[in-house]
Known about the structure:
Blueprint: H1 9-14, E1 22-25, E2 29-33, E3 41-47, H2 54-60, H3 63-79, E4 87-90, H4 94-97, E5 106-110
Antiparallel strand pairs: 1-2, 2-3, 3-5, 4-5
Bound molecules: adenosine monophosphate.
Adenosine monophosphate binds next to loops.
Amino acid sequence: MQAYDDNNVFAKILRGEIPANKVYEDKHVLAFEDIHPQAPVHILVIPKGKYISIDDFGLRATPEEIKALYEAVARIAAEKNLKENGFRTIANTGLHGGQEVPHFHVHVLGGRALGPMLSRKES
Ligand code: AMP
């Protein structure tokens, strides 16, 4: 697996080097608004640890870190009033997944009907 890049934009947000509109924080997790929202609610939930992707996180993170991330998603969904009508979580991974930032993040999207899961233009 590739080495973690300390200069990725989310590492800079975690170090406080660039600003973010934070919506949730605890010992293991930070969540903030996506800078280019694709829905009325578009939050990024990230672990504070240095994990590149969901598979890296799943294999190396502690049970406490994993629980904290899922709990943060649940808290954000409740706080943003997404539970009644539902929402979508996305974890883009690697080249084919379209991952732009190499620090594991879960997109939490909602506030309107989001349509089909994938573009139907290509199969
Ligand atoms: P992904 O393609 O899954 O890696 O998603 C990366 C996301 O990070 C995109 O939705 C970007 O809009 C978002 N993003 C990039 N830079 C920032 C930033 N400085 N603050 C908040 N979100 C950002």
